[in-house]
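Fold Annotation — chain and its backbone
Next Lines — sequence and tokenised fold

***
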Amino acid sequence: MSIMPSAKPHSRRWLHLWPLAFFLLVCAGALYSLWHYWPQILIESAMWQKSINQQMSTLLREVAENPTRAGWSLLSFSFVYGVLHALGPGHGKIVITTWLATHPSRLKSSLKLTFAASLLQGVVAIGLVTVVLGILALPSRQLHMSSFWLEKGSYLLVGVLGVMLCGRALGKLQRVLRKPKRFTSFTPHHVHDEKCGCGHQHLPTQEQLAAGEDWRARMMIVLSMGMRPCSGAIMVLLFSKVIGVYSWGVLSTLAMAAGTSITISGLAFLVHGFRQLAVRISGNKAPVLWRQVAWATLAFAGGGILVLAAVVMWLSAQPVMRGIRPF
């Protein structure tokens, strides 16, 4: 098969990367809107949480009086609370959306991450209350302080995850941009596509894509999302412990975790779909080198967002002695 020197790239090929630019523009607009409306969001959320707190307390009292009749109402309300509570801003949504938007991942694997993180969040709340109040018999003040330090630890893990992703992205950029020792770039007359039958593999398979996902990064994602116990779950467990229906408090917490997983999974499905759409729109029109640099740069930006978010959340975290946090 004859070969010929590769043609000079067209000067306007960068226009084929418009989906990436559009995605970055949307992210910038979303961040600005969140920053502008954040005080109002906090006020509305605090009022909503106060109402939910009162409703939960009423249902727990009814369960203590008549478990058979009020138990299912408590679990249904807890599930709906988990769904709605997860709609608000939170560090878990930042972690999973940043990861899915900037790194290739199979949808099934992404849904497993969200389910594991939501379940871990509920289990951490149950374990914390059981150990602090049940085993050690410490006052509720120690419970809130323990929850506060777990929260700080989750933010620390978010920062570590961001640094790790930035390091991986820089390593990939270094490998991609490293100049070859001698000129070896030739373009054959044969044009490759999915049905050319030449025997070459032009794109990674789904199995290879899944195998390429770093288990360390996935573990960090689950821990950073699930290590911070839900404030609503802490409140339910604490009050159920006081009035003597702790087992119903545990079931209520698990129902909250199930509701949270539904919302986070829907968000993961949405982000994954937008990423796949952007990949299909861009196709293979841009040069391979440009695509590799663009995705590596996007991955670095995602890691930087996580580092910045971790610093902001770490500095703004405050211990809560009474009530529940907005998110």
